[in-house]
Amino acid sequence: MKLTVISLFLFCVLSACSSSTKRVLVIAKGSITMTADTITIKDGGGTSEMPKDFANYPKTFHIILKKDDGNVTVNIEGDGDGYYLLNAKNDTLIGSFQKYGVPTGSYTTISQEALKRDIDSLQLLVTNNNVSPANRNYFILPYQAAKITNNLDAFMVTPYHRMTSIEKVGDKDPEVYRFWSIKEIRETIEKLKAMTVSKD
After folding, report:
1. DSSP 153
2. What's the total number of domains in the chain?
C-alpha cells in the first residue's frame, strides 16, 4: 500500500518523527571526542565535559561509548525535549537541584539540627535511597545516562567545580543542578561530622 504525502506527514506526527531535542552532557576522565552517536574517551588526567544536541531522534536511541578498555552502549530515553547527563567516568555521580542566586555577602550560622539533617540527607544519597526524578536528585552509575530536566537552558554544575552562584536573567531564577563524585560526597559527610557537637 502506497502512502500519500499527507499520510506520511500524519504518520510522522503520530509516531517517532518529532522536532524534539535531547541535549546530552558527557562527563569523563580524560579527553572526549564526539562523532554522530559515537563518543570516544581517551583516558587522561582531570575531568572533561562536552554537550551534544541530538535533534529529531526517536524516543529511545543508543550512544556508543568507546573506551580504551572496550565499548559500552548507553541508552537515551524520554519523550520530548530533555537535558541528560551521561556519566562516562568510572565513578558514580550524585546530583540534585540547587537554589543558586547572587551572593548576599552575609554569613549564615548553621544549627546543629540543620547540620545533622544535611548529613542524613547526604548519607541517603550515597546509598541511593530517597533518590528519584520527583525529588530532583540523581544517582548515576558509571556508563549510564539519566534525564535531568525538560529544560534545555538549565545549568549543570559538574564535579570539582566551585561555582556557588549564577546571576539571574530577568526576574526568573536559574534552574541549576549540581553534581558531585561519590568520593566528594563521602568527604563532605566526614567534614560535616567533624563540625557536629556530641551530646555528653
Report:
1. T
2. 1
Per-residue b or e along 52-74, where b marks 16 or more CB atoms closer than 10 Å to that residue's CB:
bebeeeeeeeebebebeeeebeb
pLDDT tens, residue by residue, 24-80: 999 999 999 998 889 999 988 888 999 999 998 888 999 999 998 899 999 999 888
Among the listed residues 129, 168, 175, the one whose alpha carbon sits nearest the alpha carbon of residue 149? 175
**Residue 12, domain member (yes or no):** no
C-alpha cell at 149: 530536566
DSSP string, 4-45: PHHHHHHHHHHTT----EEEEEEEEEEEEEEETTEEEEEEEE
Domain that holds residue 138: 20-195
> Does residue 125 lie in a domain region?
yes
C-alpha cell at 137: 536528585
Answer whether 10's CB lies under 8 Å from 31's CB: no
Distances (CA, A) of 20 to 59, 78, 154: 9, 10, 16
Of the CA atoms within 13 Å of residue 139, those in its CB half-sphere come to 13
For 114, half-sphere exposure in the C-beta direction (CA atoms, 13 angstrom radius) is: 4
